[in-house]
């Protein structure tokens, strides 16, 4: 989940008992509402703006383009109208991946800049990619969730130097790793009713393996230029494999 500057999962029936885990769906109240007509939705500028920014991201952002191509190669083609939904969310989150519907939720009331949309879409597409390529138990295995959160924080640009400076966080040695760990823990706590100690333990136990899993980028893309090179390398890899 991309927090509001959360992750993986909105939607499904709410549990009767308040103390039961709702898997983060409380953060995405529109998940349980009936879809609005196109005419009604077109009257809301938040929704229109969200759709325009989403289209721009999918068409021009190299992070998103690489992930879309990788998912297609893995047999999970992403369709704009089917797999993305602009909705109003809780004020603390910017997006989420709903594993129950294989849909990415974009928080139209919290995403106001194109750069933010780029980062949220990339973050959630990494979860979608993990969902496509592996048997991820999002709801019962906190280590699986932790691994995908680590990968999303590491590869989406969440922890770039400029983003950290904007958060007034400055560090030197291993600052990127610290940022990835902290943001993964925050995302788990946003969508699961677990203690901070449980979240930290899950992240620490899988951190090294998941931090070093750089698929499909093959590197940590610290900038758009890095992402463009990674996308080009990915395309060339596919061409090479096709000729084997």
Automatic annotation (TrEMBL):
- Keywords tagged on the record: Hydrolase, Metal-binding, Metalloprotease, Protease
- Entry's Gene Ontology BP terms: mitochondrial protein processing; mitochondrial proton-transporting ATP synthase complex assembly
Q: Name one Pfam family in it.
A: Peptidase_M76
Recorded GO CC terms: mitochondrion
**Positions of the UniProt region annotated as Disordered:** 1-29
EC number(s) on file: 3.4.24.-
> Which InterPro entries has this protein been placed in?
Peptidase_M76_ATP23
* Keyword field contains Protein biosynthesis: no
Top enzyme class, one word, equals: hydrolase
Q: Which GO terms describe its molecular function?
A: metal ion binding; metalloendopeptidase activity
Q: Which family does it belong to?
A: Belongs to the peptidase M76 family.
Q: What is this protein called?
A: Mitochondrial inner membrane protease ATP23
Which organism is the protein's source?
A: Furnarius figulus
